[in-house]
Design brief:
The complex is a heterodimer. Chain A is mainly β. Chain A has strands at 5-7, 10-13, 19-24, 31-37, 44-50, 53-56, 65-68, 75-79, 88-95, 103-104, 108-112. In chain A, strands 2, 4, 5, 6, 9, 10 and 11 form a seven-stranded mixed β-sheet that branches. Chain A has a four-stranded antiparallel β-sheet with strand order 1-3-8-7, with no helix packed on it. Chain B is an all-beta fold. In chain B, strands 2, 4, 5, 9, 10 and 11 form a six-stranded mixed β-sheet that branches. Chain B has a five-stranded antiparallel β-sheet with strand order 1-3-8-7-6, with no helix packed on it. Chain B is globular, with a radius of gyration of 13 Å. Chain B starts with a strand and ends with a strand. Classes of the chains: A mainly beta, B mainly beta. Chains A and B meet through β9 and β10 of A and β5 of B.
Chain lengths: 113, 110
């Protein structure tokens, strides 16, 4: 089966600019997650979708981050405006349901300068 | 909030030596998952444990879930260079949340 697809792989932007990341989960996976991983740290959950509904966005900085999952399939994560501390790898993951292991995409490495 | 502590942060071993990482939670977990992240890569799901006292093996890897479902360990026998990476535990908390440990980095000494 195809894995979780993410794009772009790398992005460099200046602070205060906006950026968007795209994720296509494994077909049929109802649950989709966006994680932020800063170098040397563990993944931090930003938002969790069940189909196209938000289950948990408690750690999403909503003043600058937004995410949507249209039609319960693809998802986009947006940052506007970006700050230097947003430099990280943004990982998308999906699972058949919330009690199963996650399959991660290769991530988008964001550098804010 | 709920936390999962993972130790050690780093472990240096000679190739062929054993490696163990431990995770501890102050609250009872519904399940525990283990992931491996190679340098420059993304986390890869290894296994999930659900039952109290459960032990599972994958070749040289042994995973345990404590009787009280508050702790877990991953033991690798006779490490190989392919085992290099960071191992994360992630415990199932309330409302199906996964609580991630900080990871243990396995380094093979030259």
């Amino acid at each position: 089966e195809a894995g979780v697809a993410q794009s772009p792989r790398y992005k460099i932007i200046e602070k205060r600019q906006s950026v968007a990341f795209w994720c296509n989960p494994i077909s049929g996976h109802a649950t989709l997650y966006w994680y932020q991983q800063i170098l040397g740290q563990g993944p931090k959950l930003l938002i969790q979708f069940q189909n196209n509904g938000v289950v948990d966005d408690s750690q999403l900085p909503k003043d600058r981050f937004s995410a949507e999952r249209l039609k319960g399939v693809d998802s986009t994560l947006k940052i506007q405006p970006a700050k230097l501390e947003d430099s990280a790898v943004y990982l998308c993951a999906s699972s058949p349901a919330r009690v199963y292991g996650y399959t991660f995409g290769s991530g988008t490495r964001l550098t804010v300068v | 909030g709920q936390q999962v502590m993972q130790i050690p942060q780093y472990q240096h071993v000679q190739e062929g030596e054993d490696f163990t990482t431990y995770c501890n939670s102050s609250t009872t977990l519904s399940n525990i998952q283990w992931y491996k992240q190679r340098p420059g890569g993304h986390p890869v799901f290894l296994i999930q444990l659900v039952k109290s006292g459960e032990v599972k093996k994958q070749k040289r890897l042994t995973f345990q879930f404590g009787e009280a479902k508050k702790n877990s360990s991953l033991h690798i026998t006779a490490t190989q260079t392919t085992d290099v990476g960071t191992y994360f535990c992630a415990g199932g908390g309330s409302n199906y949340q996964l609580i991630w440990g900080a990871g243990t980095k396995l380094i093979i000494k030259p």
